[in-house]
Structure formats: C-alpha cells, structure tokens
Amino acid sequence: MTDDQTTQDNRVSTVLGRRLGGELLTLRTAAGLNQTQAAKVLSASTAKIAKLERGWVPVRDPDIRALCEAYGTGDPGIIGGLLELARIDRERRKAKGWWNDFPALGEMREYVALENVATTIRTWQLCLIPGLLQAPGYTRALVQGNSTQGHPDRGKQFVATRSARQQRLVDDPPLTLWAVIHESALRHLVGGADTMREQYEHLSRAAAKTNIKIQILPFSAGAHLGMGGAFNLLSFATPGAMDVVYTETALGQLWVEGGDSAAQYDALFQSIARRSLSEAESKNLLDDLLNEK
User: Fold this and answer.
1) Which of 125, 133, 134, 290 has the fewest beta carbons closer than 10 A?
2) Which pLDDT does position 100 carry in this prediction?
C-alpha cells in the first residue's frame, strides 16, 4: 500500500493496524480457515474480520487470543508480539500528538506519529543526514534548497518539526537509533562549509550517546546492495518481531508492512552495516571531515 494512512467512512487504516491484520491473515490462511469461520470464533460478522485484517479497526486482546487459539498458534512469542502491536496501535489511534499542529508535515504525519511510539529505528541513508540527526542549520539549508516548500513560514515549521522529533532521542526511555550513512551524504555540501561543520559536530555529539549508533559506509566500499535507495526500519518491541519499513520515493512514501518483506529489509540493513566502518572508525572520519573545514 503506497498511502501511509487511508480513511473511509470516518474509519482509519493505520500502518500498525495493517501490519497486525496482515499477521492475523497469514495465521488464518496457514490454518486453512476462511473469514466466515474466523468470524464465528468471535461471534462477529465476516465484515468485521475483513476490516480487522485490513487494519481498519483496533483489535481487542481477547479477540487476538481467541483467533490465535482457533488458528492453532500457541507460541507465546508470536501471541505476545501481536498483543503488543495491538496495544501500540490502539494508543496510536487515540494519540493527539504535537505533529497534528504542523500542517507542514503533510504525508509525513503518520511516519512521525509512529516514530514517536517506536522503540528502535534503524536507518540507511544515501544522500541525506537522517532527520533525527540533522543540525538546525543543515535542516534550514535543505528547506531553502527545496523549492517545493513554498512559503518561508512553511520552512520554519519544517525546521521546528525536526527539533520536536529529536526529542525522542532524549526521552525517558529514549529511542534507540542505529544510523548507517553513506559518505556521499557527508561530502554533499549543504548550506556551505559552516553549515557542514555544525553538522559534523552535531553527529559527533550524537555518536557519544549510548542510545545512538552511527556508522559510515565509505566510498571505498564500492558497489553494495544499498545502492537501490534509503529506508527506515521501525521496531515497536524486539527489533525484527513486528517491524515496518518506511521509504521515500520520488513521488511519495511507501510502507512495507509484510513480515517477510520487512525481514528482507532487515537483512539488507545488516549487510550494509557489515560493509560500513565501525563506530570508532566512523568517528575518526567525522574528525577528519571537521579538520578539512
């Protein structure tokens, strides 16, 4: 699904809801049951099961447990992951976060809302410094260089949202961030030498935090699997258990909500990280870039 969030008849299909529904659909299919049979388990209509599997409605814990039993799923890990995802989705649907006051976010609003409830984010970036690690001057320069931002006030709002998002890195508990950044993003001159110096210093300070891991993939690594594009992996419990993937395209945003597909992105991220410099080596490269300015 290319839309990050869709609405219909005052209902909302959320990313987490679709991820949960997809997992339940997979379990039902493996059990050889149809929607009508699943509906009987809950004494509900077939339409309710359809809405549930498409992420249109929040799911109650008793319903998850009953469906898992009917589908022959007794693994505590699987059931626990589904219950946790359902809990977070219910909270997400009720949340009235700061992002709702920033129209400049546009289609990014759903991503920022998920970022706010994620426990871990792994990000691979080819051309840009990740938003959570951008210094204010770097963000302003990006906005100024992007003619699609329009009115200056919109640009100011965009910078403000970056700052608000970064609060998650110092919350209690803080968001865990693992960023792998291609050297080209560091070499690309955004806003001039002073802006880049500020950005390098910002990255160095961030890398010193225990909840932030920064690796750089150098030009010398040559061809690699990550050349196809940047992406973010968002985890809401144990990384890998119920991940969703977010990636931006030239024409919009794309969510990858399927378990197998998300696992493939996880494997891709791990592959890129293995080709990258270690944290210490990455810090040394940042120091070298600072000395060049």
Assistant:
1) 290
2) 76
